[in-house]
Amino acid sequence: MSKAIGIVGIGSYVPDRIVTNYDLEKIMDTSNDWILERTGIERRRVADKDTASSDLGVKAAEAALADAGLSAEDIDLIITATLSPDMIFPSTACVIQEKIGAVNAAAFDLSAACTGFIYAITTAKAFIASGDAKKVLVIGTEAISKILNWEDRKTAVLFGDGAGAVVLAETEEGKGIITSVLGSDGTGNQLLYIPAGGTRMPASYETVDRKGHTIVMDGSEVFKFASRKMVEVSEEAVNKSGLTLQDIDCFLPHQANLRIIKNAAKRMGIPLEKVYINLHEYGNMSAASIPVALDEAVKNGHIKKGDIILMVGFGAGLTWGATVLEWNR
Ligand code: ACO
To answer: How far apart are CA 77 and CA 80, in angstroms?
Structure first.
């Protein structure tokens, strides 16, 4: 029988600078009450002007390698999930590879927005299962503050910067990653996007003047989609695992909006004490949100050896995905 494939190291990093809702009140027409009531977010981290996604990703990656007891040379594949890459190309994964000295790795980026981490660990598992890689470093990293329109209160209040990383490999004990379900619906590709800066609308004075290089979102459509999909894909992944929702010890959703999370938990009958929530601290860190929450939940004892974890993400694309795993460390 083939061995289990699981997480053998985990780490995360968030920048020091904290921006509260009260700070945002001073620069845009918003209020702490509105943000808290509609989203659950109280504060977020913001990277300084010289820090890019790769810099955050490096810190998370180094912590994950140390936790795994591995050196960067042991890694044979790096997958970086990000919607805020350092540059259009080359990949942020290659930039991180250079900085950590992972000289034996292949490296690429994966674009699935806030579902990026779920897509990336699913891809990593497939590489290991096929024998094409043995030790894969998966990094979710975002410097979203750099691609926000700070004059748009509908998006600027929602996001934050940070990075989380895991090392995936065959494990001796436990089941590791039990199953994943991924999905996408490209008809929603313009519900959450950055219009300019690619080949559809190359950068020009006009695109800069119109703030075309920053995130645009139809919040209420994304909200409806997320509320529906979070439950559907969670149930599908749990069923595919041969488990029931009662078997879930920790529900760890993408941290975008407290109302979406609470509604999903309620509809699935998962009690709130089993739901891991940290979005009040960090806002929506997109591809970094799930690995940062996972690292935190492991370190603060919320997740223990043998626990069954349901991680679920949704985001631009539109994309969605869920992974069920047994925490085997
Ligand atoms: N402060 C004060 N008022 C605001 C703000 C703000 N920051 N933002 C919007 N408003 C106003 C609106 O202008 C509107 O006023 P109006 O009625 O006078 O026009 C009113 O508040 C209500 O706006 P809605 O957009 O209807 O508010 P809603 O309750 O839908 O909440 C929100 C908006 C929080 C964005 C919600 O729609 C949401 O969370 N959507 C999902 C977003 C999401 O999860 N995105 C991430 C996906 S993951 C990824 O791939 C990155």
So the answer is: 10
